[in-house]
Write a structure and sequence with these properties.
Mean pLDDT: 94
Order of helices and strands: EEHHH
Helix content: 40-55%
Number of helices: 3
Distance between the termini: 20 Å
Shape: globular
Structural class: alpha+beta
Number of strands: 2
């Protein structure tokens, strides 16, 4: 939805995020987000990334991850 990445893949085990990968987007930044989220509690990631706004779009690749995680938990 109006962001650079076209897909977000991850595993959610016992409320924790693993193997987070974005398809398309700002490769370096999205790899960093994946590394920072690895093994972290999904609820904390939602709180941290929710509302991040990229170029006045009202959302971002990070915000989209928080929305998906919120729907999964």
């Amino acid at each position: 939805q109006i962001v650079c990445s076209s897909q977000i893949d991850f595993d959610l085990k016992d409320g924790k995020i693993y193997n987070l990968k974005y398809v398309r987007g700002c490769d370096g930044n999205l790899q960093a987000i994946g590394r920072l989220c690895e093994g972290q509690d999904a609820e904390n990631i939602v709180k941290t990334l929710e509302g991040v706004n990229c170029h006045s779009r009202g959302t971002s690749c990070s915000d989209q991850l928080s929305r998906i995680l919120k729907a999964c938990t």
